[in-house]
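Look over both lines:
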Amino acid sequence: MEEQFILRVPPSVAERIERLLNEEESSSEDKSLDLSFSEDGRTGTFVIGSDSFSAYLMDLPTVVESYKTYDDTNLIKTADIGQMIMIREAGDPAPDVVEYRHGLAPPMRDARKRRFRREPDLNPELVRRVEKDLLNIMAGGTVENLDILFNDHFRVF
């Protein structure tokens, strides 16, 4: 299995990276590339030559599959990609969320809001109580705060 990532860069940086990868005689200022992240693992710095840019690790709204072909006919899946590294120019504002909500292509614009089911609104106290009751049952105990009336009705308090 290969390790892959998506690197989204501004057009000016993309041209410099393409020159660096395609030309053997690129200028000496573009010879170095470096990507490093801070302690939080979400923010970092991307350096190409002597220029430095802000980098952000962002979650994608869906998993993107990556494929490779050896014979221009058959595709072989090589990776599932769920995050991308976004490089920003110096004046661009930093993203305030960890999920890039628009995906990689225009059809995925606001995909989570338009296509996916909303998360149910759950009362955290109810979830804690049910979890505690399930742990008690698995340990051989009983459910707390349960009254059983023998007139064919059950009441839970």
Observations:
- The mean pLDDT is 83.
